[in-house]
Amino acid sequence: MSALNRVPSLMARAGTASALTIAAVGGSIAVPGVASDAAAATPATKALQVAASKKGSPYKWGAAGPHRFDCSGLTLYSYKKAGKKLPRTAAQQYNKTRHISAGSRKAGDLVFFHSGSNVYHVGIYAGKGKIWHSPKSGEVVKLQKIWTKSVWYGRVK
Protein backbone atom coordinates (compact mmCIF):
# COMPACT_ATOMS: atom_id res chain seq x y z
CA MET A 1 0.00 0.00 0.00
CA SER A 2 1.45 3.40 -0.92
CA ALA A 3 1.99 6.05 1.73
CA LEU A 4 -0.72 8.16 0.08
CA ASN A 5 -3.24 5.33 0.37
CA ARG A 6 -2.32 4.80 4.04
CA VAL A 7 -3.22 8.37 5.06
CA PRO A 8 -7.00 7.77 5.40
CA SER A 9 -6.46 4.59 7.44
CA LEU A 10 -3.85 6.33 9.60
CA MET A 11 -6.25 9.19 10.22
CA ALA A 12 -9.11 6.80 11.00
CA ARG A 13 -7.00 4.93 13.56
CA ALA A 14 -5.67 8.12 15.11
CA GLY A 15 -8.93 10.02 15.12
CA THR A 16 -8.03 13.59 14.25
CA ALA A 17 -4.37 13.49 13.29
CA SER A 18 -2.12 16.43 12.61
CA ALA A 19 0.17 16.57 9.58
CA LEU A 20 3.12 16.16 11.94
CA THR A 21 1.63 13.00 13.43
CA ILE A 22 1.01 11.52 9.98
CA ALA A 23 4.56 12.40 8.89
CA ALA A 24 5.97 10.88 12.09
CA VAL A 25 4.38 7.52 11.29
CA GLY A 26 5.62 7.52 7.71
CA GLY A 27 2.52 8.82 5.98
CA SER A 28 2.13 11.70 3.60
CA ILE A 29 -0.52 14.23 2.74
CA ALA A 30 -1.54 15.17 -0.79
CA VAL A 31 -1.85 18.92 -1.28
CA PRO A 32 -3.52 20.01 -4.53
CA GLY A 33 -1.27 22.05 -6.82
CA VAL A 34 1.95 21.07 -5.07
CA ALA A 35 4.44 18.74 -6.77
CA SER A 36 5.06 15.36 -5.21
CA ASP A 37 8.45 14.64 -3.69
CA ALA A 38 9.33 12.59 -6.78
CA ALA A 39 8.48 15.43 -9.16
CA ALA A 40 10.24 18.00 -7.00
CA ALA A 41 13.41 15.89 -7.07
CA THR A 42 13.96 15.98 -10.85
CA PRO A 43 17.06 17.88 -11.99
CA ALA A 44 14.94 20.18 -14.20
CA THR A 45 12.64 21.12 -11.31
CA LYS A 46 15.60 21.60 -8.98
CA ALA A 47 17.38 23.82 -11.55
CA LEU A 48 14.21 25.89 -11.93
CA GLN A 49 13.98 26.33 -8.15
CA VAL A 50 17.65 27.37 -7.97
CA ALA A 51 17.19 29.94 -10.76
CA ALA A 52 14.09 31.36 -9.04
CA SER A 53 16.02 31.63 -5.77
CA LYS A 54 18.47 33.97 -7.53
CA LYS A 55 15.73 36.54 -8.26
CA GLY A 56 17.20 40.04 -8.00
CA SER A 57 20.83 38.96 -8.48
CA PRO A 58 22.63 41.45 -10.73
CA TYR A 59 23.69 40.68 -14.30
CA LYS A 60 27.42 40.60 -14.92
CA TRP A 61 28.88 39.49 -18.24
CA GLY A 62 30.91 36.30 -17.79
CA ALA A 63 29.62 35.63 -14.26
CA ALA A 64 28.34 32.20 -13.20
CA GLY A 65 27.29 32.86 -9.60
CA PRO A 66 26.69 32.57 -6.84
CA HIS A 67 25.80 36.29 -6.56
CA ARG A 68 26.06 37.63 -10.15
CA PHE A 69 25.15 35.96 -13.44
CA ASP A 70 25.05 36.35 -17.18
CA CYS A 71 22.37 34.34 -19.00
CA SER A 72 24.30 31.11 -19.53
CA GLY A 73 26.00 31.51 -16.16
CA LEU A 74 22.57 31.32 -14.49
CA THR A 75 21.61 28.15 -16.38
CA LEU A 76 25.05 26.60 -15.77
CA TYR A 77 24.87 27.40 -12.03
CA SER A 78 21.26 26.22 -11.66
CA TYR A 79 21.84 22.89 -13.36
CA LYS A 80 25.15 22.36 -11.54
CA LYS A 81 23.26 22.70 -8.23
CA ALA A 82 20.80 20.13 -9.60
CA GLY A 83 23.64 17.70 -10.34
CA LYS A 84 23.95 18.22 -14.11
CA LYS A 85 26.89 19.58 -16.12
CA LEU A 86 26.42 22.15 -18.87
CA PRO A 87 29.02 23.93 -21.00
CA ARG A 88 29.59 27.66 -20.47
CA THR A 89 27.93 29.55 -23.34
CA ALA A 90 24.32 29.63 -24.55
CA ALA A 91 25.32 28.21 -27.96
CA GLN A 92 27.35 25.41 -26.36
CA GLN A 93 24.44 24.64 -24.04
CA TYR A 94 22.07 24.43 -27.00
CA ASN A 95 24.38 21.95 -28.69
CA LYS A 96 24.51 19.82 -25.52
CA THR A 97 20.71 19.54 -24.98
CA ARG A 98 18.11 17.29 -26.58
CA HIS A 99 16.16 19.59 -28.88
CA ILE A 100 12.40 19.53 -28.32
CA SER A 101 9.34 21.23 -29.78
CA ALA A 102 7.48 24.08 -28.11
CA GLY A 103 4.59 21.67 -27.58
CA SER A 104 6.87 19.30 -25.64
CA ARG A 105 8.44 21.92 -23.38
CA LYS A 106 8.22 21.50 -19.63
CA ALA A 107 9.20 23.62 -16.67
CA GLY A 108 12.96 23.38 -16.26
CA ASP A 109 13.74 23.03 -19.98
CA LEU A 110 16.10 25.57 -21.49
CA VAL A 111 14.82 28.28 -23.84
CA PHE A 112 17.32 29.46 -26.44
CA PHE A 113 16.85 32.78 -28.22
CA HIS A 114 18.28 32.89 -31.72
CA SER A 115 18.76 35.07 -34.75
CA GLY A 116 19.00 32.78 -37.76
CA SER A 117 21.29 29.97 -36.61
CA ASN A 118 23.01 32.13 -33.97
CA VAL A 119 21.98 31.41 -30.35
CA TYR A 120 22.46 34.60 -28.33
CA HIS A 121 20.50 34.12 -25.06
CA VAL A 122 19.23 31.36 -22.76
CA GLY A 123 16.79 31.06 -19.87
CA ILE A 124 15.00 28.34 -17.90
CA TYR A 125 11.37 27.70 -18.82
CA ALA A 126 9.07 28.33 -15.85
CA GLY A 127 5.76 27.41 -17.50
CA LYS A 128 2.94 29.60 -18.84
CA GLY A 129 5.20 31.18 -21.48
CA LYS A 130 7.68 32.59 -18.94
CA ILE A 131 11.38 32.12 -18.21
CA TRP A 132 13.81 32.82 -15.41
CA HIS A 133 16.83 34.57 -16.89
CA SER A 134 19.56 37.12 -16.40
CA PRO A 135 18.75 39.56 -19.22
CA LYS A 136 21.51 42.14 -19.70
CA SER A 137 23.80 44.68 -18.08
CA GLY A 138 21.94 46.92 -15.64
CA GLU A 139 19.22 44.33 -15.00
CA VAL A 140 18.74 41.48 -12.53
CA VAL A 141 17.65 37.83 -12.61
CA LYS A 142 13.89 37.84 -13.11
CA LEU A 143 10.82 35.99 -14.33
CA GLN A 144 9.71 37.34 -17.69
CA LYS A 145 7.32 36.44 -20.50
CA ILE A 146 9.00 35.09 -23.64
CA TRP A 147 8.96 38.09 -25.95
CA THR A 148 9.68 36.53 -29.36
CA LYS A 149 8.85 33.48 -31.43
CA SER A 150 12.54 33.09 -32.36
CA VAL A 151 13.25 30.52 -29.67
CA TRP A 152 14.31 26.90 -29.57
CA TYR A 153 13.88 24.54 -26.65
CA GLY A 154 16.34 22.07 -25.19
CA ARG A 155 16.07 19.44 -22.49
CA VAL A 156 19.15 18.80 -20.38
CA LYS A 157 20.21 15.15 -20.71
The side-by-side strand order for the widest beta sheet comes to: 1-6-2-3-4-5
Q: What is the H-and-E element order?
A: HHHHHHEEEEEE
Main beta-sheet strand count, sense and barrel state = 6 strands, antiparallel
Tally of helical segments:
6
Structural class: alpha+beta
Q: Estimate what percentage of residues fall within beta strands.
A: 15-25%
As a percent range, the share of helical residues equals: 25-40%
The low-confidence runs, each spanning 5 or more residues with pLDDT under 50, are: 1-36
How far from one another are the termini? 33 Å
Q: Quote the average pLDDT.
A: 83
Supply Rg: 19 Å
Strand element count: 6
Molecular shape: globular
Topology:
Layout: H1 3-14, H2 19-24, H3 37-40, H4 43-53, H5 71-81, H6 90-96, E1 98-100, E2 110-115, E3 118-127, E4 130-133, E5 142-145, E6 151-155
Antiparallel strand pairs: 1-6, 2-3, 2-6, 3-4, 4-5
Helix pairs in contact: 4-5
